[in-house]
Amino acid sequence: YYSLSENKVIKTNEYDIWDFNFDCGEDFHILLNSAKIMKIIDLGEINFDSIGEEDIPEADSSIWMVDMPSGSLDSTAIGEWWTEEGGEIKSKNHVYLVDRGSIMSRKKRYAKIQILKFDQSTYTIKYQIIKTGDPARTIDVPKDPALQYISLSIDGEGEVMKLQPPRGSWDLVFTNYSELLWNSEFFQLYGVKACLI
Q: In the Cβ-directed half-sphere of 53, how many Cα atoms lie within 13 Å?
């Protein structure tokens, strides 16, 4: 993260240590780590425990969804996981199958997540790495109004991370992300290194 006014790098982190970014502003968007070329499938309102190894489709299947490279929040893979009723945010309780990217080992690559609720500025998430045999875990991800996004890694017991510098303190980020490219037959994700505003 680079500040033009200070003419210096103000924060760095490894691009592959997190899986999801949670909106800390007025909305409730959840973004995938596109640097890892992550993809997701919305399985709808089904039993979390019913999804196993046999439900993982081919990695290049066209049913996977990705966050659009534009960064537009109306084009995220998870989309609007919530409804608003009487000023309350309620989860649709959908289960999502997650491809954490080909940089992950085969054992840790696929997971399932469910956004259980949002309550008093805290997201509550249930997740499980499918092939490791580890139990499903639940973790709270509190919004931090000083940040644009707060990050979550679903490795092990999960870890909430403040990876971004405070909102308004940086101008550019030099990072990896994925771009959708046409290869004459279909769109595919391609990892790029770039500078973003």
A: 6
